[in-house]
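ok so i was messing around last nite and threw this chain in just to see what happens. nothing serious, just curious
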Amino acid sequence: MLKATVTGRIWSTKKLGEVPAGSILEVQVDGTSTTMLVFDPLGCGDGEKVIVATGSVAASWFPGKSPPIDALVIGSIDEASVAAGKKK
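result:
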């Protein structure tokens, strides 16, 4: 899993029929310069911190035959804490 920040939304008027309702977001993986596109079934917005699952873990979340999605927002971070209760 990755912690990332939503940096934008991708608009697409056409998509494969097996892709369920949701949004495609651009996120930046925290602590890196890596950006990626992720499928978002939760409705997250710009600047929001999210948890992203990738690869077969993301694909297996969908029932039945997996759509061609390999990065999935699985949570929205309200706050994160690290060692000894320090907020980050």
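not much to say yet. The mean pLDDT is 88.
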